[in-house]
Amino acid sequence: MQISAEIKTFFKTACGKTPFAEQVGKSTAYRAEGSSISVIPDSHGGCHIHVEGRLSLPQIRKVRAAIGELAATFQKNGAFDSIWINRPLPTDVRSLGLLAPESFCIGMQGKSDLVYDFKERKARLWQWLNERKECTIPSGPCYKMGATALILDRIAKKVLLVINQRRPDAWNLPGGGYDPFRDSSTSDTALREAQEEGGFAIEGKDRPEPILVGQMQFPFNQFAPSLNQIWAYCIDGMSKQELHPPKKEIRCAKWVSFRDIEDSDGTLEGFKLGDEIKASLRTALLGLGFERIGNKKQMIIHAPLPRPNFECISG
Q1: Using the 8-state DSSP alphabet, how is residue 172 labeled?
Q2: What are the φ and ψ backbone dihedral angles of 177, each rounded to 5 degrees?
Q3: I need a labelling partner for 162 at 20 to 30 A (CA). Which of 110, 130, 152, 175 fits?
Q4: CATH code 3.40.630 region(s) in the chain
Q5: Which runs of E-coded beta strand occur in the chain?
Q6: 145-302, which class in CATH?
Q7: Peptide bond before 90: cis, by omega within 30 degrees of 0?
């Protein structure tokens, strides 16, 4: 079975060995003797690099350099639309960060992102390579995708919250399932769901453009699908628009002040207010890195660079 020059170069850089090919189901896997690394293309235009076990720092540097070279080559020759770094779950997200070249800019819309695939028990970090083709969520390794929206009005210092009919005792961020027929990415899902659940329109004459300021994930949220992302957008002045939520789905939609959320002790106006809302708001406003919140749940934050220089919550 013939092996491409790009794959041979990758393994030479990553581990100094010559790869061999073997059939794994309907896919072809490329491996090297004694190495914990394998390369497996998928049928959706993606090239997956699987890294098993623990690596020393010198090994990590070699693999990182090899991934960077491979991504640059594929981007130039158009052999693949996307490239993926895969680690088995559970894993420390920092291990993915150490393996990722700078081109893997996590959370940048249509460029790169982190996926928790609980069906295959993998943490997957992907980069979009094909500039000639619109980036859509690669469908092969993703299951039960969803997104929520953190819509901020910095002028009024307010954020949009809703109370769902199915969870009538708690405030939530608006959100729902990814629809491949309407959404090109989960960021589209977030903005669409915010408008549907809030009962307002973003597009229109003299209305401000949404500005992406951050993206977060709660991979172990019991109420979320296996991939759930929080997309934070600033739409200054939007809180002046009246809300008309769909009554069958949404009990209440309201613009709530930053200060009321920050001062909350877990409830707001008699309804529960989860830590993830407060932590997400704080992150979007102050550009924090990542932090652990209650019940051993980890919130992973990907703030675009440069970090937003917003006024303090109480400003």
Answers
A1: B
A2: -85, 145
A3: 110
A4: 5-128
A5: 20-24, 27-31, 37-41, 46-51, 82-88, 112-117, 122-128, 145-153, 158-164, 175-177, 211-217, 227-234, 250-257, 267-268, 271-272, 291-292, 298-302
A6: alpha beta
A7: yes
d(CA 54, CA 36): 9
CB–CB of 60/47 below 8 Å? no
Residue 127, both tokens: 């980069």
Query: Using an 8 Å Cβ cutoff, are 236 and 311 in contact?
Result: no
Model pLDDT for residues 54-68, shown as the tens digit of each residue: 888 899 999 999 999
Q: CATH 3.90.79.10: which residues of the chain?
A: 145-302
Say what the pTM is. 0.58
Could you tell me the pLDDT band of residue 257, with boundaries at 50, 70 and 90? very high
For 127: left if phi > 0, alpha if psi spans -120 to 50, otherwise beta; the answer is beta
CATH 3.40.630 fits 5-128, yes or no: yes
DSSP-assigned states of every residue in 35-79: -SEEEEE-TTSEEEEEE-S---HHHHHHHHHHHHHHHHHHHHH-S
Nearest CA among 117, 149, 300 for reference residue 230? 149
